[in-house]
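Record type: monomer structure entry
Structure origin: computed from sequence
Chain ID: A
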Amino acid sequence: MKISKEQFSFPLEIYEPSEFVIKFLLEDLAITPVDETVMLHITCSTRRMGLADSLLNLAKACAKRVVVPEHIECCGFAGDKGFFTPELNAAATAPLKDQIPENCTRGFSNSRTCEIGLTHHAGIPYSSILYLLDEVSCPVSRKPHREVPEAKTEVMSE
């Protein structure tokens, strides 16, 4: 049986990772940005959702210098098509390597398949922005963001 969000009886909100971090986690994290230049790939889906600034702001919170390459609005991996049509990814990322600063050794994004294609063509490894966040942050408190109602315990009698 296939389950979709429309089948839930309560509202279900789905967040892009950087949007979730900014909305629910960032204020409870102590962040010490890495003193390095990192590349950032803003995925085409992130752009279409209007969340490019969320991803960029998260990256800027985690690293002192963030480079978003020009003319790469999409990496061309297209979900899993990059595995079967690698020339699509190669063409889309052709201008990338020349835009990577000499002192930059890693890049970040929010899509694993994009990261695979970017790593292959950039000459530096790309990984999830959440790995960078994990590297540079630690919790400042354990307080919940919102009150969680107590679970009701029902005792069934026979």
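Annotation 1: The two ends are 33 Å apart (CA to CA).
Annotation 2: The chain is about 35% helix and 15% strand.
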